[in-house]
């Protein structure tokens, strides 16, 4: 009986994955509410008008995505500056490929006694 239960579970997962792959929704999803979508409490979301609400949610999602991208770019530039500083002070060294070009990977420089 246990073997049959394991096989049945595996087959149902396989069938669900195939159904979702080909664009059919999951069996548990019945509908999506027209006024759904999260926005912060301080953003007016258009009240009960679905069109205004949808526009507000899309706009807010774009804003939050743009902020996340800017934050990631800022982190990358700050990290590069920090690595250059560590290289200049002798604490880090960038690995080079066989042509002598930097690979973008860094390691701690061995201190000589």
Question: How would you describe what is shown here?
Answer:
It is built from two helices and two strands, in the order ααββ. The termini are far apart. A two-stranded antiparallel ribbon has the order 1-2. With 113 residues, it is mainly α. It is flat, with a radius of gyration of 26 Å. The mean pLDDT is 77. β1 and β2 form a beta hairpin. Helices cover 53% and strands 11% of the residues. The chain has a domain at 49-108. It has helices spanning 2-21, 50-89, and strands spanning 92-96, 102-108.
Defining traits:
single chain, about 110 residues, mainly alpha
Q: Layout of SSEs?
A:
Layout: H1 2-21, H2 50-89, E1 92-96, E2 102-108
Antiparallel strand pairs: 1-2
Low-confidence stretches: none
Biggest β-sheet description: 2 strands, antiparallel
Strand content: 5-15%
Order of helices and strands: HHEE
Described by the principal axes of the CA atoms, the overall outline is: flat
> Largest sheet, order of strands side by side?
1-2
| SS class | mainly alpha
Query: DSSP helix count?
Result: 2
**Secondary structure: number of strands:** 2
| Backbone CA Rg | 26 Å
Calculate the terminal CA-CA distance, rounded to whole Å.
69 Å
The overall pLDDT, averaged over residues, is 77
Portion of residues in helices? 40-55%
């Amino acid at each position: 009986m246990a073997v049959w239960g394991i096989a049945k579970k595996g087959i149902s997962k396989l069938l669900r994955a195939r159904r979702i792959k080909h664009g059919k929704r999951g069996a548990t999803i019945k509908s999506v509410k027209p006024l759904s979508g999260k926005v912060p409490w301080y953003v007016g979301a258009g009240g009960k008008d679905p069109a205004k609400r949808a526009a507000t949610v899309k706009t807010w999602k774009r804003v939050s995505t743009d902020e996340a991208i800017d934050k990631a770019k800022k982190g990358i530039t700050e990290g590069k500056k920090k690595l250059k500083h560590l290289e200049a002070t002798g604490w880090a060294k960038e690995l080079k490929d066989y042509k002598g070009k930097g690979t973008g990977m860094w390691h701690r420089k061995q201190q000589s006694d």
